[in-house]
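I am still getting used to backbone structure tokens and would like to learn alongside you. Would you supply a protein for us yourself, any chain you care to pick? Start from the sequence, derive the backbone structure tokens from it, and show both lines together. Go ahead whenever you are ready, and we will take it from there.
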Amino acid sequence: MRVIDVGANVGYYSLLMAQAIGPQGKLVAFEANPVLAKLVQANLAINGFALGSGISQVISKAASNFTGSTKFTVFESYMGGSTVFENDPQPGDTAKRIDVACVTLDEQLKDFGPVDFIKIDAEGSEKFILEGARRIIKSSPNLKMIIEFQPEKPLYDLVSEHGFKVCPILPDSSAQEMSFSELQNFGTGDALLTR
């Protein structure tokens, strides 16, 4: 099983995925915040999924629809909200803009093969990340994704173009397919994308 975690934060979901894929699986975790990327690496190593094991790899880059560099807002307290966008910090928090390397999933993982699962939680960059993963999406017929889904028409059209149904994850942990108009009423939240 081949899985990708974009916006790995401290690696909680990376750990769950590493355990689920077993010793023959492959996990690539992307985290643009360099402090959090080191925590992902440490958490994987402490839990027996060290980078040298061949199971996991941590990429300390922002995933997007281009390769190069970009500005990245890092929040000092709420690090999980760090973003490529120039957002103001929450009350009581501070932020700084840093330069980070940026890459498309297609370019970084050109030899990775078909992917079974992708998790994306990237504070509003989901559309750009998926634009940079078109080859992976097309070459992965069994691909399922969980993404932080914002009900915006360009994102909805992009995932629909690839044959995905958008199924928001409801408070009872079930997932229910919704049309674009239903999604607008639902608001931003995690969604399962399945074909």
The domain at 2-142 is CATH 3.40.50.150 (Rossmann fold). The longest strand covers residues 95-103.
